[in-house]
Amino acid sequence: MSTYFADPYSSYQRGGNENRNGVIRRYLPKRSCIEPSMANDVQAIMDEINNCPMLVLGYRTPAEAFTDEPLELTNEQGRCTSK
């Protein structure tokens, strides 16, 4: 498996990461102070983002894709590879 590293300060090399940052910024502007007392608010934001369908996932939600991935790996290999 190939591994790629982005150069520092080269956001154009991390398109997916920057896209997700933009989604988070809809809820929390830059330089927002996130404190432990906001844990419930942050969890609600994460839940909303993870339950929003995405084109790149075939209109599945990230949560659905995450739970389906181990099943797909198991079906492809005929066995479970997790320990």
From TrEMBL:
Domain of life: Bacteria
Start-end of Polar residues biased regions: 10-20
Coiled coil: none
GO MF annotations, alphabetized: transposase activity
A single GO BP: transposition
Protein name: Transposase ISMsm8
SUPFAM superfamilies linked to this entry: Ribonuclease H-like (SSF53098)
Native organism: Bifidobacterium breve MCC 1114
GO cellular component: cytosol
